[in-house]
Amino acid sequence: MVQYTLVQSPEVILTVPGKDSVKAREKAMDQLIELMDAGELQTELSDGFAPQQFIEVKEPTANPSPEEDAVTHAVQVLSNLATLKLKLQDSRTEALQVRAKIDILFSDEPVSEEEIASLKDGFKALKTYAQANLRYKEARSQAEDARSVLDRALNATETEPKASKKGEN
User: Fold this and answer.
1) What is the pTM assigned to this prediction?
2) Which stretches are tagged as biased composition: Basic and acidic residues (predicted)?
């Protein structure tokens, strides 16, 4: 829901569904015309009025507590870990195949151009996997802390004392 008001009549609040958009402002304009036709609007709009002149009324937002910020950050860290884990799994098989072929570079045996070309094509997969693996390991250590933050936040409601009912012994 979005709310609009007029500079000329700040006490008038027009509420329309959706977000602030041209369509929402047009719906608010329809409401304004209905108010004017019904004689419920005390303001004269003699100079005319356009939907762009509506002022959006925003509700004051509460600042999240440090605990809420920590939970939000923890969820972001865990989401990042999940993404990295999937990327790591997707690139692992191909990277390990390429890694097994690298040994041909260190042997004294002759190598064909096709083998070298195939190996070079696989270097990107190898690089992707190796970088993802490093990022995953770093993210995993950060995720341990994030998991602890979430565990504390989730257990906070379970450890609060329960109100006792009157008449119970």
Assistant:
1) 0.51
2) 139-150, 159-169
